[in-house]
Specification:
Rossmann fold; transferase; about 20% strand; alpha/beta; S-AdoMet-dep_Ade-MeTrfase_prd; Type I restriction-modification system methyltransferase subunit; single chain; N-methyltransferase activity; about 300 residues; 2 domains
Length: about 300
């Protein structure tokens, strides 16, 4: 068995013997691991990625059992691509600060942090207390420095501006119209799109010159509120890239997603750079993916 399989087996065995709900038992198993009361039987030390993937498998099993459709994990293939891009856009020197305003279980955030392999800290926002406890204990095992805020991320966030925002945007309407009035992207009539408000909130908490990397619905700029979003982004952000993800990753066309990369304007950015429009090849084609990542690296080196 691989280390990932042994870690999953350790957590799953503990959860199966527990009277608690599976996700609660995952938290308990991780706490046992942290205290040394009970640990996975590993013949070699596990890497951060082996740990993340092992715990991820247990969380996925727990989510299937609890049937929480709004708490879906970002697929590893997307997380690793986002992590690769993020690692190329930040300075190799000094500390990098991140924000994930929709952290959930933390899987996307930790994928990115593991790939950055540097002096990185993060803020993570989540309203679900169980998911916060779950992502917090995983952060501790991974030795990642994360500060958690248990709240609606579209309410005021008392955090310092960050170098980069990472988010797999939740898609749908934001039900709190009263709070929505605090945002420019609140439409004159009807509910605001939550994913639009998350983009605005993220930019509010990004340093000048910093980046925001979002997993977005591919039809983001074709929706009924798209014209309002276009106007907002024209005034408040620089669109650096729109990267279409392979359709094979999604169940149907309506579920297809892309990666949107924004940069917060700053005095140092004089000329507006061209927007990178790209399409990710079939991720199973290693040669095509290698060429694509090389193109991304060259773009990041030239534009960052």
């Amino acid at each position: 068995m691989t280390n990932t399989e042994k870690i999953f087996s350790f957590i799953d065995t503990y959860a199966q013997s527990s009277n608690a709900l599976y996700l609660e038992a995952v938290i308990d198993a991780c706490n046992e691991w942290l205290t040394g009361s009970s640990t996975p039987d590993l013949s070699t030390p596990a890497t951060h990625e082996e740990i993340r993937r092992g715990i991820q498998l247990a969380i996925l099993k727990g989510m299937k059992e609890s049937a929480q459709p709004n708490h879906q994990m970002t697929p590893d293939s997307i997380g690793m691509l986002l992590g690769h891009i993020a690692s190329k856009l930040v300075s190799e020197n000094g500390e990098t600060s991140l924000l994930d305003p929709t952290v959930g279980t933390g899987n996307l955030l930790y994928t990115v942090m593991n790939m950055m392999n540097g002096n990185v800290t993060a803020y993570a926002v989540e309203i679900d207390e169980v998911l916060v406890r779950l992502s917090a204990v995983v952060a501790e095992i991974l030795e990642q420095r994360v500060t958690f805020l248990v709240q609606d991320a579209l309410r005021p966030l008392f955090i310092d501006p960050v170098d980069m925002v990472i988010s797999d945007l939740p898609v749908g309407y934001y039900p709190d119209d009263e709070n929505g009035l605090n945002y420019e992207l609140m439409p004159p009539e009807g509910h605001a799109y939550a994913h639009h408000l998350f983009i605005e909130q993220s930019l509010n908490h990004t340093k000048d010159g910093g980046y925001a990397l979002f997993v977005i619905p591919s039809n983001l700029f074709e929706s009924e509120q798209a014209s309002q979003l276009h106007g907002f982004l024209k005034n408040k952000a620089i669109i650096r890239a729109v990267i279409q993800l392979p359709s094979t990753l999604f169940k149907s066309e309506v579920h297809e997603k892309s990666i949107l990369i924004l940069q917060k304007p700053s005095e140092e950015i004089i000329a507006i750079p061209e927007v990178l429009l790209a399409k990710v090849p079939d991720m199973k084609n290693k040669h095509a993916m290698a060429r694509f990542l090389q193109d991304i690296d060259e773009w990041a080196e030239k534009e960052s």
